[in-house]
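Handout, section B. The chain below has 493 residues.
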Amino acid sequence: MPDKTSTPHATPSHTSEGYHRALNKRQIQMISIGGAIGTGLFLGAGGRLQAVGPSLALIYLVCGIFCFLMLRALGELVMYRPTSGSFVSYTLEFLGPKASYIAGAMSFFNWAMTGIVDITAVALYMHFWGTFAHMPQWVFAMLALLLITGMNLIGVKWFGEMEFWFSLIKIVALVLFLVIGSAILGLRVPVDHHTTGLNLITQHGGWFPHGILPALALTQGVIFAYSGIEMIGTAAGECQDVRTVLPTAINNVMWRIAIFYVGTVTLLVLLLPWSAYQAGTSPFVTFFSHLGISGVDTIMNIVVLTAALSSLNSGLYSTGRVLRALALNGSAPRYLTHMSKQSVPSAAILTTVGIYLVGVFLNYLLPSQIFEIVLNLASLGIISTWCFILLSQIKLRQAINAGRIAPTGFAMPGAPFTSWATILFFCSIIVLMAFDYPTGSFSVACIPILAIILFVGWKTFSHKPIHPVPPTQSSITLTDDLLGTSDIPSKPD
């Protein structure tokens, strides 16, 4: 198998980094939806409703607004220069090699932890069925990992197709829940002997049954629920027509957040008392099981199982490309630059799978605690990644205002004020995590350990780019070259 570490020139079918432009508009649009709907909603919302009650909907709304602003910042960067290296490449260009190294390393840490969360979620969902109740949790984690690894190694076209159908199933399921739930609420049909409506909130402690501080402390879990929305920036590097597809895909995220997160959680607490939901069980499975309709809860469990596989699929895709971008920058082992004949970063993908195997082992050691522990650790990586995206966008806008770079045509609204406000919000979440004892406090306590690991890693590698970032003054030419707008084939090869 040839060792394709880099390709110096883009072609109509390949990017300058050697990736195959095989993702079409249909797949990119669905990836953008799937990235905004993951395990955090389908599984994590149950435990969060139990912890803070109806206020979870308000937390989703506030966090969703700032996450959307982060995504708009990423959109401006992508329209300036599409790349599968995404924020690692942008951070290198605008903030320097140290920042790029930290951004990539923390993103890898985020997705490594998220992958462990997802394989844990798959195992938990499988235990819903009595037939598998006595099967060890780690067995299902391993089977899920083998399936997703195979799909990512085959080629990006197959990843895109798999993610399209995974995302479609999630969307259809949520729409069905919203339709059925709204009909039950509108017709005032009792659910498990409870009268539906606002009385389920007012009679059970109001919007903040445990107080405001626990709700604020939970924001890191909500941030995790939104993790993955930045993956559209990575996928854009392998998109056939990024200038047409990306702005629409990003702008549509806002209403998806409003409907699928805020609307869904609000509907859940209007249909059942918030205390009916519990950690480790999908709130959707809880709701449909209380309806008493045979088989519906089984169908919904299949859907949430699909959501976990989708998140694992996306995470492995993103991490492989981030790791390779680090290696191309000289900030990771050179073997990670290896590309397979299918134009996928196979070495980086298999290295990530090696980390996920640690998660399989943790499922063996700590089957009951592993989900919440790893979720909190993943939040640190998510927040740092998003902050680097915003800082890079601030530098890009400064260069645009100074006339060194042409406007992208997709400017972040309200920048730089909105950029700095979003960074401040994300940083405040880390402070709030410290009050979420024990898991949040443990995560914050791990920051010095992460800093030491990052320092050792920085000293270990040369940081001499194997695949240099092109100079900013030729960004317009570079973008045209990357996009191949004059002769991109209408269908993927």
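Note. The two ends are 20 Å apart (CA to CA). Compare this with the example in section A.
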